[in-house]
Amino acid sequence: MALVIDDHFHDQCGVVAVYNHPEAATLAYLALHALQHRGQESAGIVTSDGKRLYKEGAMGLVGDIFTAATLARLPGRIAIGHNRYSTTGGSCAANVQPFMVGYGLGQMALAHNGQLVNGQQIRESLEAYGSIFQSTSDTEVVIHLIAQSLESRFTARIVQALRQVRGAYSLVLMDEESVVAVRDPWGLRPLVMGTVDGATVFASESCALDLIDAQLIREVEPGEMIVVDRDGLHSSFPLPAEERRSCIFELLYFARPDSHIFGVCVNGVRKAFGRQLAREAPVAADMVVPVPDSGVPAAFGYASESGIPLEPALVRNHYVGRTFIEPSQSIRNFGVRLKLNPVRGSIAGRRVILIDDSIVRGTTSRKIVKMVRDAGATEVHLRISAPPTTHPCHYGIDTPTRAELIASARTVDEIRAYTGADSLAYLSLDGMLAVAAGAGEGYCTACFTGNYPLAPVVTSRDQLELFSP
To answer: How far is the CA of 453 from the CAs of 80, 125, 244, 311, 401, in angstroms?
Structure first.
């Protein structure tokens, strides 16, 4: 049977766009490599040669999907690309983005990072009037709204469509001659702009720009739409302004540590979270051990602030996906051991502080604590560089239901007892925000507080599912 071993939250996807480069498809392919952490289920690229669009995409990883032969079938100086991890809509070939369609003005393609809180409601309305959907992704709603618009220009149709949707979106779109990048008014998901060899590039994170030697120019601002075409670059703010609420989990876990998003260096912020955690929750110990890879920067911060040596005493196997085939003979802690293994010579006889970025269901933390104890640790103290996660996300993050989140119904001491740790402490909400506020941004903290900037819309289909067996 397939067993899921990764108990972290997962972001929905990563997007990239390239305008006016002779190797647009290759640049998009490389950028998607850098964004592979944002989605491992499928990937796709659409290009334009100025006359028509071309698409290649499939289920799987970027390096497996795109070959020299595949890229040769993607001509042109314009490209958009997408990595997918499903939240809304299943994991299947029909949901591989970018979506590419023909419509009244010609052809267009769209790639989306985020989730629409009213997507299902709009879909039901469109279906009631005869629209036929080819996928189960909420992204296709935007395609239909653009196609049904009576506006005479591509960009005007995009604006009209986006004024009808609510939710988190960083979008890149294209037709035969232009690229459009737009970010939701709350700025929930990241999107940056850069330049290389006179070409304009957009990507979910700056690490994608680094790989293709592009210079980071700036973020796409919340509510901003940038159009790049033969007349140059045009910026506008056609959507109603909202209070900025960038996703704090991008800084805590999702974004690569070498990225620069929301105006800050991700690695630096994560180290600062660790330093703040050490000030709030000190404990006598012999070593600070990060849970790789996401716990590493915070562990550096905790160690530097506390003066306790950092020891990378958990080794990660980087060649493991999210699921694998469980052996017929039960092996204790098999899933976690496939991914992590303790360095017994470093741990035995010592007091250990384990640093991780979150506890979701608690099952993985429990197995890691036991693994470290079995390696000979005399004490195991668990420190989490984020507040307790108590609520699910509705903005493009794959999260369990609230009932599955261990912190939603248990106290910190109850969670400590469940994990088997000698002590457990989380970074406080105030401490986290004090560190993150150094960028002067507003952040969404709904997964810790339940205060959602956009309430999800309950549809008739949701109600049916609510009462189904």
So the answer is: 29, 24, 9, 40, 19
Q: Quote the pTM value.
A: 0.90
For the chain, the maximum distance between any two Cα atoms, rounded to a whole number of angstroms, is 73
| pLDDT digits 0-9 by tens, 445-458 | 999 999 999 877 66
**Domains along the sequence of the chain with CATH:** 9-245 (3.60.20.10), 266-449 (3.40.50.2020)
d(CA 122, CA 180): 23
pLDDT value at position 452?
A: 92
Range with the poorest average pLDDT among 7-11, 73-77, 421-425: 7-11
Q: How far apart are CA 95 and CA 13, in angstroms?
A: 12
Question: With helix as H, strand as E and coil as C, how does the chain read?
Answer: CEEECCCCCEECEEEEEEECCCCHHHHHHHHHHHCHHHCCCEEEEEEECCCCEEEEEEECCHHHHCCHHHHHCCCCCEEEEEEECCCCCCCCHHHCCCEEEEECCEEEEEEEEEEECCHHHHHHHHHHCCCCCCCCCCHHHHHHHHHHCCCCCHHHHHHHHHCCCCEEEEEEEECCCCEEEEECCCCCCCCEEEEECCEEEEECCHHHHHHCCCEEEEECCCCCEEEEECCEEEEECCCCCCCCCEEHHHHHHHCCCCCEECCEEHHHHHHHHHHHHHHHCCCCCCEEEECCCCCHHHHHHHHHHHCCCECCCEEECCCCCCEEECCCCCCCCHHHHHHEEECHHHHCCCEEEEEECCCCCCHHHHHHHHHHHHCCCCEEEEEECCCCCCCCCCCCEECCCHHHCHHHCCCHHHHHHHHCCCEEEECCHHHHHHHHHHHCCCEECHHHHCCCCCCCCCCHHHHHHHHCC
Q: Does residue 13 have an active-site annotation?
A: yes
Q: Say how many C-beta atoms besides its own lie within 10 A of residue 284's C-beta.
A: 10
pLDDT one-digit tens code per residue, 75-128: 999 999 999 875 444 556 778 899 999 999 999 999 999 999 998 899 888 888
Closest to 245 measured CA to CA, from 439, 438, 445: 445
**Nearest C-alpha neighbor of 365 from the set 85, 329, 373:** 373
